[in-house]
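Tutorial handout. Part one gives the primary structure; part two gives the three-dimensional structure as tokens.
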Amino acid sequence: MRVDIFTVGDELLIGQVVNTNATWLGEQLNTSGARIGRVVTMADNAQAIQAELDRSLEAADVIIVSGGIGPTHDDVTRQALADYFGAELCFDASVFQRIEERYAARGQSPPESNRRLAQVPEGFEVLPNPIGTAPGLLYMASVHDRSVLVVALPGVPSELKAIVQDHVVPRLKDKVTVAPSAQRTMLTAGIRESDLQDAIDATEFLSHDHFALAYLPSSKGVRLRITAQGSTRQEARARLEQFEDHIRARVGGYVYGTGTESLEAIVGALLRAEGRTLAVAESCTGGLLSDRLTNVAGASDYLRGGIVAYCNQVKHELLGVPEAMLEEHGAVSGAVAQQMAEGVRERLNTDIGLSTTGIAGPKGGTPEKPVGTVWIGIATPITTAAHHFVFTSDRLFNKDRTCTEALNILRLEHQAAAEPTVGVPLAAETDAAK
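Part two.
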């Protein structure tokens, strides 16, 4: 079953509002077994909506239109659908009664403009909105001797989700027959998407239709969404486990968790279990690493504190970085990263010191040290090391990615200390790109 998604609104086109509805609808419908044919974003324009209907009605089984059915003059979807299907708008007293009841519960009366919400195209079914005033609309169109389901939904995300879950998904499940499937998301860090793909080498699995693998990169690492199908749920789960075992055998050192786990939570659990304490010294990340660490409840069990040493004077006075070292190597260097990690470890009396220094951008780079150059230092009672990366020209991405790599270095340090023979990837210098 093919589903096409229309999202309507000038605010979406100009970037004023992030189009979360399209993302959420795609995920929900895919989970329900539907195939997404296309996703189109268009202006609040009746002609644009109708032109896209012409295209989608030729191939889609379901068309979902989000936005443009509110009470204001720029909400044109309702009228556009009515005109396209030759349906007259009729006032539905029961719809307006529900609106009046919602306002009455707050001791208010609905504004006159809300009467537009009760205008329903003839032949359309009303889909009640449990948390808002604009109802959804459903129409079964006949196209070339086949039926196409057309659904119009409010653009407010919470209202759209409620109507989809209550009324749309149950109907689609009756139309879709899919093989039982199992799905899992594996979380990786410290390796680029292309290198990950080469290392996994999933050709043996992906040559069969009942396996699928998606690579989802971000500044927080690469997520692997693995899917397996079978004739039964038990068979699907067994195939999923087989696929995951293959991946872990090849890249297990890069996998830090599954599902919605965060790297900072994983690292925190390791530190807590070992009873080890941590202090951080940040330059290019400006406190973001501390923020990531303290997003985890109970982080005070292991995080003593941190120092944001953004200028050389603070690096020298608070972290003990020698002025001669700063002059010889520069603030963005392996030597300074190591000294920052050692300095914060000594001054805050912790087991581990972690540091970040780099050129976040978009300016400040040189041929020798381009924008995106980062050094991360780690100091323990046994050793001190620095790790080199080269990221992108995007400042915010670089800051977030630096934090991810710093946390991953901390995770791998634990693995190397606990299992020195497993060969986890902990190189002294690692180049990485976006």
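Part three, for discussion. Residues 395-418 form the longest helix (24 residues). Residues 373 and 381 are 27 Å apart (CA to CA).
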